[in-house]
Amino acid sequence: MEEERRKDHQALLNPGEENELEVFGYQTQKLRRVLFLVTSVLTCGVLPLLFYWKPQWRVWAYCSPCSLQEADTVLLRTTDEFQRYMRKKVICLYLSTLKIPISKNSEEPLVADCHSVINKAVLKPELKLRCIQVQKIRYVWNNSEKKFQKVGLLEDSNSCYDIHHTFGLGLTTEEQEIRRLVCGPNAIEVEIQPIWKLLVKQVLNPFYVFQVFTLTLWLCQGYIEYSVAIIILSVLSIALSVYDLRQQSVKLHNLVEDHNRVQVKITVKGKGLQELESRLLVPGDVLILPGKLSLPCDAVLIDGSCVVNEGMLTGESIPVTKTPLPHVENTTAWKSHSLEDYRKHVLFCGTEVIQVKPSGQGPVRAVVLQTGYNTAKGDLVRSILYPRPLNFKLYNDAFKFIVSLAFLGVMGFFYALGVFLYHGASPRDTMAMALLLLTVAVPPVLPAALTTGIVYAQRRLKKKRIFCISPQRINMCGQINLVCFDKTGTLTEDGLDLWGTVPTADNCFQEVHSFTSGKALPWGPQCAAMASCHSLILLDGTIQGDPLDLKMFEGTAWIIEDCNADYCKLGISDSNVIIKPGPKASQSPVEAIIVLRQFPFSSSLQRMSVVAQLVGEDQLHVYMKGAPEMLAQFCRPETVPKNFPKELRNYTVQGFRVIALAHKVLKMEKLSEVESLTREHVESELTFLGLLIMENRLKKETKPVLKELSEARIRTVMITGDNLQTAITVAKNSEMIPRGSQVILVEANEPEEFAPASVTWQLMENQENGPGKNETYINIGNSSVPVEEKESCYHFAMSGKSYQVILQHFSSLLPKILVNGTIFARMSPGQKSSLVEEFQKLNYYVGMCGDGANDCGALKMAHAGISLSEQEASVASPFTSKTANIECVPHLIKEGRAALVSSFGVFKYLTMYGIIQFIGTSLLYWQLQLFGNYQYLMQDVAITLMVCLTMSATHAYPKLAPYRPSGQLISPPLLLSVVLNTCFNCIVQVCAFLLLKQQPWYCEVYRYSKCFLDSQSNFSTNVSLSKNWTGNGALLPGSVLSFESTTLWPITTINCITTAFIFSKGKPFRKPIYTNYIFSFLLASALGLTIFLQFSDFPDIYRGMEFVPTVTSWRVSVLVAALTQFCVAFFVEDAILQNRALWLLIKKELGIYSKSQYRIWQRKLAKDPSWPPTNRTDYSGDGRNGFYINQGYESSEQIPKEKLNLGGQTTEQHFWTRL
User: Fold this and answer.
1) Which of 132, 192, 672, 1120 is most buried, with most CB under 10 Å away?
2) Does 114 score more than 80 pLDDT?
3) Which one of 341, 379, 486, 722 is the catalytic residue?
4) What pTM value is reported for the model?
5) Any idea where the Cation-transporting P-type ATPase N-terminal domain is (predicted)?
């Protein structure tokens, strides 16, 4: 019963998705609410403030748990490691408000779509539905399934048949009205936040609330100048933050506002065409695409085809052809029917339609799929409005550090209470001074310190044409130890050069036709395939499209023409592509080729095909191009040359990009039947035509950058959609795989009827065949990798297919492969994202560099995604480099390291500054004294503030060090640095405090003012003091004017200056301190000013600074003590705490090793004599538990049934044997 109640009380929202949330139901209790209001008044607003910071407390305070069906308030919690809470009110919508007749009969559906959640959400006869709005998305309560479900989209369970027949004719006016009410407007509305609201949000930040409390206290104590300075700085800081947030809000609003005001045409059932504003569109509407149009929603194409520019989504302005959803009469969900390739039918919101191609049966039509924030563009805007928080240890450690300082402040608070009460001070004064000491321990600028390095780094990156939309990730870049690279367009040149074609005849490869010879490509099926099988379009007289397609087409010397009257007479649509021989093309018997149907290329399918007609012929032809391994599967085996694998390898090992071509004749009676052809029918029983060889040169920057990363001990990995052999060759040529290293091919196969899944390990070797010529071949001998070179001499290479099999069936084997995996070829976009995630699970800090096309998911998944895009800020990744080569990667890592070290330095400095002041103030409190107003002002504004603003301006060191800076604040070197510096400060200040009292001229000024004035003649000064001279911050007469404060102030001030110098470490992550001219000048000036103030004998200075004159010898002693402490602290910090070799030795002696998963695996594998496996095959009984069998010794008949079916077991067993 309890379990049932708990199940009703909570549920999951968006299960399995990135934005998964737990939702809990609550009912508001009126009595509790009244009690809350009374308590809020009694606590002077402190309770509402706490509830503002912690929304879950507010819900728990005046609501009681209930089932979600009865809830009027819901509490949402993220399922990630941050466990953030949100509170939302349940809203009720009433369909009775619509001015249309609605049936109250529970048997009659409200909308025609049987899959729609609307039918299950509306309660009859009340015509009411309950919903919540979470991060701009609306969810309605499904009364049947007892859960909240997203609205504003067509359900994925719809089949191709449902979409064509349920929505093909459009929605009725009544259904449109219902959907508009339930789904909301089709608008991506970004509210321009009012200034007052932004101001309130900033002021209610816990940091500023603490600052208000601190300033109020200081003003009450008379620290007017310093408080005013901090108030001015805080107001400036808040004003700049509000201005920045307001500007961002305005920019984002302007970016999406035009999207909401597009005029569109739709088909209304029974009424024909209707023109309306795009914000009125609803899922299920049929959209008419007249020509060029910026899409206001996501839609699935049902009739005709079109060409769109998806640059907004991918960062690549290459035209993409979209084809209509096929007419098939099955019940398979439409996305599943198209597998990973469903995107070829979808027009995404925000993308530009640049050309439409009607099918001949009417205009190009598309069914609205998703509206508003459910769309691709909406999702993008939501990711900007609600960014995923970063799980970076630095920020967690910073919070712990601040808590520790606050604890120190609390100890000081009780110490001050004890001292002042003991001396009989009034309760009011006692409380004021105790609170003052509490605020001294936690510097108000501490939380902001972590961002200063980031601001400077971002500015320097911008100068290097690297733009950033997520500045917090810059610090993360300092921790990167693995970088994944796409190949084409990233490591190699974007454009490919044609090298030659290898035609086939009689099941044999023929002589190579070289394009460098200058001879035109002879006419034949291969020439026809190259001329027609592409997605190029003619736009404003210019051929546009994929660079690969463009190069291939240029190699034929044919041209593209618009459909003219002559061809239209043949019954050809004016949207069909017409290709004709150009003046430089070889003699051809064909006047032109007309492309009737196109099945576009997709990364997941690795192929594309077209249905074309040669003018003058009745029969149709199918031409296909794609990855050779993939294309060979669709050809008749007898047409594929027997030496196909060898010939393919011959070119791929030389680094060529190889594309295969195929063809078949299609017998059809009517041209109109072309539109109803399925891809499966077209792409079958083809004749293999040959290979197209393209040269893919390395960019000149690739090799030096990879060498630089390698020297810095940063792993580099290649993730590409290209052929495995080509990828290996490129990796060797670029020295991603160093010379002399072994490459082990990992090939995994899916389980078959009588055989479990298998993984084969094949060792590739280099052998010299003649002078300067290396040929790579697969060695099937019985060799293994030498044990002494095991650490780094071998690299695993695998295809996307093998990766998928290993992920599913050999999950426990995957980490072992990834630790030394370097080449991942033929990877789909989804597999790229998955691989990056798997690397992150091994505790790598992963950078991903790609061109933004097929890498969007991986770029977003990585800790630092860098898109090589011409756009200033590609939406695909946090970082965008406008320089299209990988030089941006080391730049980013250098700046990340510099920013990280700067953040640590400023943080350590501010911590020490708080502790230095805390110790000095605590010593003065012992005698009911404190520092003067201008003494604080000098330390806080002239030194600390200036240090915070300029300390992080030191540039990154030009060379990458072979190790990373520490990513943890709570680490032995840093903690020891703070603890030892605290000890040195404490010793010097306490010794000075005690030795002062031993001096013959010392007296307690505020108690013995007459004695003090009488003894002035002994001092080497002519300062005269009036008896009533006391500080404006005095608690008691003379509490500021004292020998103690005059002695401790120069010590604490010089300590602040020297600490800033000590913590401003330069090499190996930043340039030397003297290159930061402003910071160096400020430190030197502050030190000079402090010494001048200490040794000057000017009455006005003494009066202003509230000093007491002392003998010169004492002042010299104080200066010597402060400088001695600096020398000791500098030596300890530089020679011991920052001595990496010493720490490595200590770790080795104590047996302390890295706890990172990849390090643990490296240590395990180094001790495993059977690793890496070579030239053997391992089998899996069950992929989930990593059970391996070597079938060289154990046949499938001999394997016990319980071994082959281990799904219920959790123990993992390994049987490693050699073939």
Assistant:
1) 132
2) no
3) 486
4) 0.73
5) 168-213
